[in-house]
Amino acid sequence: MPVTGIVTAIVILVAADRVPAFNVEPFCRAVAMRAAPVGDKDVCLRQEQEAHDQLVRQWTQFPVADRSYCEQLTLTGSDPTYTELLTCLELQRDARNLRERERGTMGQRSE
């Protein structure tokens, strides 16, 4: 593996060790403006904080590959949010669990 590949792999693994830091204020401000007159930036910020706190509690329970993939996906496009990152990780986990359950069911049928 070339040196740049090793460095890239190390950076990805180090980054995947902790919940990334996102500035969610611009996203919440934009959401509140679009939902005017009832939009409330503080509600959005509170939901993002709750998602962040949940990510901190569960971070190591998600595989490193999923954390890296979902972080990159969340950073693509508009302002990244913790709710988006958490949703991606939960979808990855649930899809994996479903595939494993289906494989187990298929194995039982063939016996």
Short key terms for the protein model shown above:
mainly alpha, 5 helices, single chain, 111 residues
The succession of helices and strands, N to C, reads HHHHH
Q: What profile does the largest beta sheet have?
A: none
Unreliable stretches covering 5 or more consecutive residues: none
End-to-end gap: 43 Å
What does this structure look like?
The chain is mainly α and 111 residues long. 73% of the residues lie in helices and 0% in strands. It has five helices and no strands. The protein has helices spanning 3-15, 25-34, 41-58, 64-75, 82-109. The mean pLDDT is 86.
Could you give a short description of this structure?
With 111 residues, the chain is an all-alpha fold.
Helix-strand layout with pairing:
Elements lengths: L2 H13 L9 H10 L6 H18 L5 H12 L6 H28 L2
Helix pairs in contact: 2-3, 4-5
